[in-house]
Amino acid sequence: MSAVLGTYNRRDISFSKGKGCYLYATNGDKYLDFVSGIAVNSLGHCHDHLVQTIQKQSEQLWHVSNAFIIPEQERLAQRLVDHTFADYAVFMNSGAEATEASIKIARKYFYEIGKPEKNRIITFTGAFHGRTLASLFAANNPEHVKGFGPKVDGFDQVPFADHDALKKAINENTAAIMVETILGEGGIRVLPNECLAGLRKLCDEQDILLILDEVQCGVGRTGKFFAFEWAGIEPDIVPIAKGIGGGFPIGVCLVNKKVSIGMKPGTHGSTFGGNPLAMSIGNAVLDIILEKGFLEKVQEIGSYFEEQLKKLQKQYSNIITDVRGKGLLRGIQIKGDSVKFLDQLFKNKMLGVKASDNVIRLLPPLIVTKKEIDEAITIIEKTIKEF
Ligand SMILES: *Cc1c(COP(=O)(O)O)cnc(C)c1O
Known about the structure:
By secondary structure, this protein is of the alpha/beta class. It has 2 domains: 15-47 and 292-386, Aspartate Aminotransferase, domain 1, CATH 3.90.1150; 50-289, Type I PLP-dependent aspartate aminotransferase-like (Major domain) (Aspartate Aminotransferase, domain 2, 3-Layer(aba) Sandwich). 37% of the residues lie in helices and 19% in strands. The chain is built from 13 helices and 17 strands. A hairpin with a 3-residue loop joins β16 and β17 (359-362). It binds pyridoxal-5'-phosphate.
């Protein structure tokens, strides 16, 4: 019996050690980790630079209130701003908080410019934005919202990829469109570049804001710092989280100057958000990800991974029906029971994670090597043969 509230279906295993792309179970078994804590361990487990950083910072200063200037926070904000579309960053502890902050900032902007009636956000079916009340009802996944009513108002949902429905849903109350650049939980569905460009154009024409949720696909996962960079567009607001802390909880909302104007002292806050310990680790993650050539390497290895997966798809088209994603955010769609496939993968000492649409997500650490990709492909092939 566990005293932990049963909100998760957990696999009957626990780990005591991790290094790079591998996890070591308490019974000594070694697993190839292609989950990375769901795109969290961006630099793999116990990366030397992160270990050294947390050791050093833990002897200096852990936490001070945001009532004071926090140099590590200033530095991380400046670096994020220097390398992205954003002009400001605000710090929290999770992806859900970062998406909620995005919603607040969008509403406050229109309030500030004298259009308080523009306060509704258009979202898409199949989306995932987190498990707080507002982020929950923003995504409106029937399984997730069941029993948690009353519904949090302020969201107008349209079917994913339905352009006409989207256009029809826009009215004088629309403040923003919020969508994941690549739907993660929703089955690694990539918004094509022309759709992202179309969304940007639509938002400009209709005087509404574009929020791109990059909590899962951002921070180098696709081989660019942000996934939307592939489309050559700039959104107004971007929540990130998972990968930026490398395993330490950090959520960030990035905004451009235009939409930032409403967010004055007292409009938002987080006790833990942006504390020195978290920020030193965020900076350490950036030290590596922004290193010259790092993202190019992710692109290269990501393409190799895609090629190998597509080869498997061609050879075993009766089982792999689709290969999706970008960079190291990959999904394979399974014909048959994807949970059973994952169980078999696990028996073969490799970890993957489920997404909807019968897709198995494969999210190796960004430092994964060609050799480890080859190992994964061998295990996947073995699993297919046994499936
Ligand atoms: C995981 C995720 C969230 C929520 O992040 P939490 O840290 O679990 O609150 C929000 N949006 C997307 C796209 C995610 O993948």
